[in-house]
Amino acid sequence: MAKIFLVGAGPGDPDLLTVKALRLLARAEIVLHDSLVGAEILALINPGAEIVDAGKRCGGKAMAQGEICRLLVEAAGTGRVVVRLKGGDPMIFGRASEEMAALRGAGFEFEVVPGITAACAAAAGAQISLTQRGIARGLHVLTGHGAEGGLPAHDWGALVRSGGTIAVYMGANTLPGLAAHLIEAGMAPDLPAMAVENAGCATARETVATLSTLPRGLRTLAPLGPVLVLIGEAVAAADRRLAVLEAVPVG
User: Fold this and answer.
1) How many CB atoms lie within 10 A of CB 238?
2) Contact call for residues 234 and 129 (beta carbons, < 8 A)
3) What is the pLDDT of residues 79-133, one digit of tens each?
4) What are the distances in angstroms from CA 206 to CA 27, 80, 92, 176?
5) Predicted model pTM
6) Domains in the chain, start-ordered, CATH in brackets?
7) Which residues are catalytic?
């Protein structure tokens, strides 16, 4: 029976943890967590567990990935119940492949427990469907942050031709370049787009714009937390929702 678990903590709201994640946190003996895992979720960990902050935010140098893998393997070797707690879902930009490879290489079995990812949390908060019949038949999940710190070399033309909704993780700093590349490849500048800070949390904030104006809107938002960007016709529903909310009299 596996004693090592790569667990998705979801977007940050403790209520959005899976039942399995909550159960594992209660019985964990060692927990290695990301910096994006908040205090409310950390408070749910078994009080007797050893807790290790393996924080690594947006390519930062708080702890190198190799060191995280080494600590994970070292923890696995103790024979105790080990939880590697990752924000969102471990398999979506969570560097899970390196950690799984390290565990396999050391001969340890493990289990992956999925979590709610930021794109799903953002869509739920904005009350929009990322896929809609006749509007968005697909969902493209991209990173806006490359290994060298800049914008990755995506196939911009293919993204434009394929249509659907684009979800960009870690794209706050590279959004101007990303928007320029998509527009240059033929995407309409007035395509609906939005940015969501802290998706799925009580502190979530949204800004709805177009592909060409969203970089300016994001600067106005001045986010401090992680940002998820959504681009596509499906996002127009968020603009309509905000318009309805603004039209409702208060008091």
Assistant:
1) 22
2) yes
3) 999 999 999 999 999 899 999 999 999 999 999 999 999 999 999 999 999 998 8
4) 36, 42, 22, 17
5) 0.89
6) 4-113 (3.40.1010.10), 118-245 (3.30.950.10)
7) 34, 56, 170
